[in-house]
Amino acid sequence: MSETLANLSSESRQFPPPEELAAAANVKAGAYEEAAADRLAFWATQADRLTWAKKWDQVLDWSNPPFAKWFVGGELNIAYNCVDRHVEAGRGDKVAIHWEGEPGDTRTITYAELLKLVSQAANTLTELGIAAGDRVAIYMPMIPEAAVAMLACARIGATHSVVFGGFSVDALSTRIKDADAKLVITADGGYRRGKPSALKPTVDEAVAKSPSIENVLVVRRTGQDVEWTDKDKWWHETVEQASPEHQAQPFDAEHPLFILYTSGTTGKPKGILHTTGGYLTQVSYTHNAVFDLKPETDVYWCTADIGWVTGHSYIVYGPLSNGATQVMYEGTPDTPGRDRFWQIVDKYKVSILYTAPTLIRTMMKWGDDIPAGYDLSSLRVLGSVGEPINPEAWMWYRENIGRNRTPIVDTWWQTETGGVMISPLPGVTATKPGSAMTPLPGITADVVDDQAESVPNGGGGFLVLRDPWPSMLRTIWGDDKRFLDTYWSRFGAGAGSGDEWIYFAGDGAKKDEDGALWLLGRVDDVMLVSGHNISTTEVESALVSHPSVAEAAVVGATDPTTGQAIVAFVIPRGSVDTEGDAGDQLNVELRNHVSKTLGPIAKPRQIMLVPELPKTRSGKIMRRLLKDVAENRSLGDVTTLQDSAVMELISKGMQTGK
Ligand code: ATP
Ligand code: MG
């Protein structure tokens, strides 16, 4: 018997691309055929988007799977590709970054200015003894210097490890230790929720525990008082005084570019290693294809933090390699008011917006009238990343932000994949609300059963990637064994057809009747109710489709009769009354609503109305903690949890039955 996921929901709404956009699209339907005919030739063509100092001899070396080498023998410099070549091509005056500080201060940085800053920073890093191959930790707020620091590392061949600027001393020091970093680049602080929020004290404590750190480079952002040690150097006294002349040296295509730890949604974060040529090829191609970027006219804005892979691939390397003009915002979406995002879109005439379902659902909760007050007519492509987007959240995004005009690209990918793997193409795909649709050209994604057999349309199972891709992770830093165990042993060599190596993504998915892909949440989160595998995502989306619900998270809790029973945690929309009887009534109504939408098998045993859900720092729901609550266990690893008070609130409610 092979395991499959029950397929409970169906969606008939479909939105073809706007005609004008389709006619002028960067990538047309032919790209799929081109890639299918010769995948390696397709990727070689995409690699030609970049400027190589030495051309590669071989596109892919897969002789030692699953350790891939792409563009073997090729050499290039990433920073040259992201900055210098645009200046050399006469586009030095083009704006690279419109930066918006949370308090309202702004900076406009052209490509010529970016080149100066990156060159100065590269010279400073070299003076501080950083050489190619050394590791540098970056712990920064969302200020332009964060991108400059990353590019300066790439320029001199140092491997960066960006640690989200909200993480604790422990999270930072374990990441410094794991990578054996020599330098930390940080700031005194950054602005969050209207106040300066200090970073330096965390760094001081982490550095005290990290003998490998020789120097700490500190950007002055907030001007708050900081302790000073003999390892500390001010950015403005070093970088800003350094020579702006720096000759970028080429590095091997497989030179390590960065280590980045996964979000920790399912457990202990993994230090994912990405390298140079294949990574840049793929993020450059996908940024151009998925967002239909027209560098001369578009203003692009990705709201992610630079501490996540989305910030790496779609704020720094993808957009800058394509010569984009982009917005970078320092702060939170509700400071000074809940309209900040729409104010920014209106102010900079943002044409491409890339954000996360957690934010879209928050905006839904805050109410339609907030975006309605702004001119959002500049928007022409909307993107989503990070979690499955519920169909109702997708529709809300389309109607209230896209004003029923703009395509939505729901992009599925992971820290490990480096770039987007599954997504509509905005000028080609007729989209369905809630579906990531189809693998991009050059990618072979599939849904398989536990025997690695492809499931038919209408079936569900495990999401896998069948062929290596240029921006794939090369290993888990310092832990090849965990790399093999986590991604390659589930369907190890010999599974599928012969000697195929199949990448196990850890996510559940289904194919609908047309073969479009629907992401169904983590495989670890799939619930087994009376012999049926039921996805968390489908039950959550059914709940979110009720007009009183803003967000929902469901888990399977051990149950004596059904094996597991569905327990749902629900955040009501702002205007909904949940006091006393009204709350009880809503509870009954929601359980019946799910039963009606998906069938009685999916009816939650219990629904808890809660004010918040536990999320990672990147905004993803941490179901494993809710499961601990639902099963009355003590909580597992909470180091990547955004707000620990949330769990107390939820646990208390669980005990009192409220
Ligand atoms: P960890 O691996 O440590 O648990 P994580 O998986 O949350 O952390 P990331 O690499 O940031 O770390 O997230 C990738 C995951 O996010 C995917 O595996 C998937 O579960 C989810 N995801 C990202 N984009 C989408 C999307 N468009 N649709 C559905 N799920 C998505
Ligand atoms: Mg993961």
UniProtKB/TrEMBL annotation:
Q: Which cofactor does it need?
A: Mg(2+)
Residue span, Acetyl-coenzyme A synthetase N-terminal domain: 31-82
For this chain, the Swiss-Prot or TrEMBL PTM comment says: Acetylated. Deacetylation by the SIR2-homolog deacetylase activates the enzyme.
Where on this chain does Mg(2+) bind? 544, 546, 549
Which parts of the sequence belong to the AMP-binding enzyme C-terminal domain? 538-620
Q: Residue limits of the AMP-dependent synthetase/ligase domain?
A: 89-469
Report residues binding CoA. Answer: 192-195, 310, 530
Q: Which UniProt keywords apply?
A: Acetylation, ATP-binding, Ligase, Magnesium, Metal-binding, Nucleotide-binding
GO molecular function annotations of the record: acetate-CoA ligase activity
Q: What class does this enzyme belong to in the EC scheme? A: ligase
Question: For this protein, what is the EC number?
Answer: 6.2.1.1
Q: Which reaction does it catalyse?
A: acetate + ATP + CoA = acetyl-CoA + AMP + diphosphate
Post-translational modification N6-acetyllysine, affected residues: 620
Tell me the PROSITE patterns matching this sequence.
AMP_BINDING
CDD domains tied to this protein: ACS (cd05966)
Q: Where does ATP bind?
A: 386-388, 410-415, 507, 522
Q: Which HAMAP family does the record associate with it? A: Ac_CoA_synth
UniProt-listed PANTHER family: ACETYL-COENZYME A SYNTHETASE (PTHR24095), ACETYL-COENZYME A SYNTHETASE 1 (PTHR24095:SF14)
> What family is it from?
Belongs to the ATP-dependent AMP-binding enzyme family.
Its biological purpose is as follows:
Catalyzes the conversion of acetate into acetyl-CoA (AcCoA), an essential intermediate at the junction of anabolic and catabolic pathways. AcsA undergoes a two-step reaction. In the first half reaction, AcsA combines acetate with ATP to form acetyl-adenylate (AcAMP) intermediate. In the second half reaction, it can then transfer the acetyl group from AcAMP to the sulfhydryl group of CoA, forming the product AcCoA.
The protein depicted here goes by the name: Acetyl-coenzyme A synthetase
Q: What is the lineage of its organism?
A: Bacteria, Bacillati, Actinomycetota, Actinomycetes, Micromonosporales
Which gene does this sequence derive from? acs
